[in-house]
Design a protein that fits this description.
The chain is of the alpha+beta class. It has 5 helices and 9 strands, in the order ββααβββαβαβαββ. It is globular and about 45 Å long.
């Protein structure tokens, strides 16, 4: 019998940083702008080079239906005109994240890694959400995407323990990255509401 795929890890932007949008910093030779229709082929090449082999035109079309206006950021390598990094700010609410904005589809070209391009597009997405008034910003990732998780942690995102196995998995990830394990803390609703539900901050 085939094994069941693990539920993805999740992270959230903490409440204490709502008033501190991250700064977008790019090295010389690169510039950032938002996605244009003519970028489709270049973005497809980027996604496949970053390991998203199943990405295609339909994948992009589905994402564009939920991306915030001016919320799909790409980094251009000025000397070649190639798209070398991207990330999207998508409106993607769920039971766990009511009116949630999801930082999604972070990708960086392997030939341009180590230059902070992934950090730059994630910072731009996060700032876009904060500017739009979002109070729940989250992302999903996998245990083995250590380079991406390190980017998220350095920006300020924190682990979200949404399932029983998450603490152990996050402790293992943080140990591999030599990063302190500091997950989002539960915030109890007022007892006067008569509710046993919890939010997190």
């Amino acid at each position: 019998m085939a094994g069941t795929a693990k539920e993805q890890l999740q992270m959230i932007w903490p409440e204490r940083l709502f008033g501190s949008p991250p700064k977008v910093i790019l090295p010389d030779g690169y510039r950032m702008r938002t996605f244009r229709p003519e970028d489709q082929a270049g973005h497809l090449r980027l996604m496949r080079s970053a390991g998203f082999e199943g990405w295609n035109e339909e994948s992009l079309k589905g994402c564009l239906a939920t991306v915030l206006p001016e919320g799909f950021f790409v980094v251009i390598h000025e000397s070649t005109g190639q798209i070398v990094a991207s990330a999207m700010a998508t409106h993607n609410p769920s039971e766990l994240h009511p009116f949630g904005g999801e930082l999604g589809w972070l990708a960086a070209c392997p030939d341009h890694r180590g230059k902070g391009l992934g950090t730059a597009v994630c910072a731009a997405v996060t700032a876009r959400f904060l500017g739009a008034g979002y109070r729940r910003i989250y992302l999903r990732t996998d245990d083995w995407r250590l380079a991406a998780i390190q980017v998220y942690l350095k920006l300020g995102y924190v682990p979200f323990l949404h399932a029983p196995d998450m603490e152990g998995r996050w402790r293992a990830v943080c140990e591999k990255l030599a990063w302190p394990f500091r997950p989002a803390q539960p915030r109890r609703q007022s007892p006067s509401r008569g509710s046993s539900k919890q939010n997190v901050a």
